[in-house]
Design goal:
alpha/beta, inorganic pyrophosphatase (n-terminal core), six-stranded mixed sheet, 14 helices, about 20% strand
């Protein structure tokens, strides 16, 4: 995507960046904004993202910003290599002494970095990133307080609204995705790696935007993005607990584990996940907790072709149990003609007399 490449280049070419999330899409724009904030800080950029009071459900995100308390002094040694370094403490002061090989070290070679450091007054932003705003005016107070900065800096407009006015110098507008999905692509193109707190911020935006995947706009690529973020360390359990106050932690963990394990078989047009006994133990869940996860997935997989979830039973000898959801009653019937089980509401609950998940899955694929 040309706009994505342009967005990447303008970010890498900027040193001082102001991120302005829209007040209209709070969970999505705040999650996406924090993900950018963490990513750009890691790159050594001077970044500021003003945030007013957050809704109670999003309060845990503001705490994530405070997790890194490191205060870093970064010294560019390309032109002035450092030959000696020492420090001493005098009363309440800590003094750090740096000696360069040529005896000269310019203040321009030294930068202060860290989550808690505010931009220096003389570091006027050379890039403004807006998130979730269809126009500059829709930023509200953030716009009125930063009119001069916005007028002088380059503007990267990231949005997903069809009525977006394309007011930016670069417009990264995708009406088929949440802001957090778009920012995930941007973060990957810039950095390649996604840290756990960045992944958690992005998954928060996705869960908020799609109402925990129950929004009809949820698409296959949304599940793929969620699975990728969980694999990167996103805390799905924490997100759902804070956004929806779910009390059954094992069910939430099990849903996250299924999302993490989802695989797509393009030939069969089927998503599948296989759960071992270890998966249940680590989630502190039982097969009874699967009903919650499957119902969540069934509701949202209405836009997906077919869904298969397999798990190891506690029977002796071990057998493989499964649930298969499909818009095709013919496929459901075909499955039940070959395996023991029953049908309900476009789904089949069945068992395969195998003790190996891969073997059971192979048998099923040969049938459907």
């Amino acid at each position: 995507m040309e706009a994505l490449t342009q967005a990447k280049n303008v970010i890498l070419g900027s040193q001082s960046i102001l991120i302005l999330p829209s007040p209209e899409s709070q969970g999505d724009s705040i999650g996406a904004g924090l993900a950018l904030f963490f990513t750009l800080k890691k790159l050594g950029k001077n970044v500021n993202m003003p945030m007013g009071p957050l809704p109670e459900r999003l309060g845990f995100l503001s705490k994530m910003e405070e997790e890194n308390k490191d205060f870093i002094i970064s010294v560019n040694t390309k032109k002035s290599p450092i030959s000696k370094m020492r420090y001493e403490k005098e009363g309440d002061e800590l003094k750090i002494y740096l000696t360069s090989e040529d005896g000269y070290l310019s203040p321009e070679n030294v930068r202060l970095m860290g989550q808690t450091i505010k931009p220096q007054e003389n570091q006027i932003p050379d890039l403004v990133i807006t998130l979730g705003a269809d126009s500059l005016e829709s930023l509200g107070k953030s716009f009125s307080e930063n009119i001069q900065i916005i007028s002088e800096a380059a503007v990267l407009n990231i949005d997903n609204q069809a009525l977006n006015e394309n007011f930016g110098d670069i417009n990264l507008v995708d009406i088929t995705s949440s802001l957090s999905e778009t920012v995930l692509s941007l973060v990957e193109s810039i950095n390649g790696e996604t840290e756990p707190k960045t992944a958690t911020a992005l998954l928060t935006g996705i869960v908020w935007s799609y109402q925990n995947f129950r929004n009809p706009k949820t698409r296959p690529k949304t599940f793929e993005a969620a699975a990728k973020l969980i694999e990167k360390g996103a805390d799905h359990q924490k997100i759902v607990f804070h956004l929806y106050k779910q009390k059954n932690v094992p069910q939430i963990k099990l849903l996250g584990r299924i999302l993490e394990k989802l695989e797509l078989n393009e030939g069969k047009q089927m998503y599948s996940a296989a759960l071992t006994e270890k998966d249940f133990q680590e989630c502190r869940a039982t097969s009874k907790d699967l009903a919650f996860a499957v119902e969540e997935l069934k509701f949202n997989f209405r836009y997906l072709p077919n869904l298969l979830v397999l798990w190891e039973s506690h029977a002796s000898p071990v057998v493989i149990k499964g649930v298969f959801c499909s818009p095709s009653q013919e496929l459901v019937n075909r499955l039940l003609e070959n395996f023991e089980g029953n049908s309900k509401g476009g789904s089949a609950l069945f068992l395969v007399r195998e003790n190996d998940l891969n073997s059971a899955k192979e048998k099923i694929l040969n049938i459907i």
